[in-house]
Design goal:
Blueprint: E1 16-18, E2 24-26, H1 27-31
Antiparallel strand pairs: 1-2
């Protein structure tokens, strides 16, 4: 990574993911009309 990791309390940068129905969603789109909780969950045996 070339950038420093975010610090506690920093706003999350906007990003795009695909939801369970295959629709591309951005963080900014979701935050526009509701609260959003971002959770990073490692897969088993991933480190």
């Amino acid at each position: 990574m070339s950038a420093a990791p975010p610090a506690v309390g920093d706003a999350a940068p906007d990003f795009t993911l695909v939801d369970q129905l295959g629709t591309r969603r951005t963080l900014s789109e979701l935050v526009a009309d509701r609260a959003v909780l971002v959770v990073f969950y490692p897969f088993a045996f991933s480190g």
